[in-house]
């Protein structure tokens, strides 16, 4: 059975609503621009939440634009920088599924096509409206015969396409939910990375805070092994709001507490704490999911020793740097995203370059002879080619990063985890 993926554009593939952004470009010098911006945004939200028909909303917004071809060129440059983070990092998925991915939008091909074709999406798989222009290049309307310009347009389009297989819809708005309501798609995923509309999420089969989550749920190839929205970041003590915002922007599930409670620490993959709220060695030993600790202050020696024994990296700021709200999150994210340990207070220093089109695996083990040979033996027996490998040690642990350029099955991962003296193992991407 074939599978098809119907993906919305505005506030889904991109972080923004394109017509709203076009208005900000075309009306930049208009004396009443703020009032018109507000009208357009209100019309957008009303249709996306199902309070106003899409036809009425689109017609009213286009009339307010006062835009031309030059404004569209500026918009395209802007939109290319506003592709949703979780979509931009999963280019490999679009490359491998060019025939199954369709962009279906109530927006306009004039600005959608130049953006999404850079992600291997075929022009013939882009379904959207088209503008009408006068001889001077001003937008004077749009093709009203296009079903996507009409209420329920996405449903009408899918009836015309008659795709032979299971169809999955991903979007943020009411028009996306209508596909599910019509019974024409197998599942509807409400995409909330950029905006969450309660009227839509309440009716979705699944709420997906990122495209990584969608790929993970459907066991599809993805840039990162585990969606960040599934990793809890426990925040305890006086932690700067900016530091938390960086983690939230990256997609982590933030949980704030006044004290470190065992049940919350045991669920956390990341811990941010201040100097006065550090976990006890016993708490760290019982935190099997914990990968990294960021301490806004100086780490105590006993905690550092226990964390190292349990394969947990610590970044601290013993000088209470006023800029540590930026420093520590960057270090934590560099470790979580790429395995970098630079400036850690308890791990050996390693800053591996990122290798494109490769899978990165991290192995932390007791510092005893022969572990690297055992790791490489697993890869050799499964005919997996190593494209890069890095090993650093300190008196307690060895830290190995291996980049491989081929797929792997669960058996490979299980064998790596089962090597004697292994402390922690994870697939990074």
Automatic annotation (TrEMBL):
Q: Which keywords fit this entry according to its UniProt record?
A: Amino-acid biosynthesis, Hydrolase, Magnesium, Metal-binding, Serine biosynthesis
Question: Which BP terms in the Gene Ontology apply to this protein?
Answer: L-serine biosynthetic process
Q: Where is the ACT domain?
A: 360-429
Q: Its Gene Ontology molecular function terms?
A: L-phosphoserine phosphatase activity; magnesium ion binding
Q: Give yes or no: UniProt keyword Metal-binding.
A: yes
Give the superkingdom in one word: Bacteria
If you read the UniProt record, what top EC class would you report for this enzyme, in one word?
hydrolase
Q: Which Pfam families match?
A: ACT_AHAS_ss, HAD
Q: Does the keyword Metal-binding apply?
A: yes
Cellular component terms (Gene Ontology): cytoplasm
- Any idea of its EC number? 3.1.3.3
Q: Which PROSITE patterns match?
A: ACT
Cofactor(s) needed by this chain: Mg(2+)
**Which pathway does this chain act in?**
Amino-acid biosynthesis; L-serine biosynthesis; L-serine from 3-phospho-D-glycerate: step 3/3
Q: Which PANTHER family match?
A: PHOSPHOSERINE PHOSPHATASE
Indicate what this protein is called per its UniProt record.
phosphoserine phosphatase
Q: Please name the source species.
A: Mucilaginibacter ginsenosidivorax
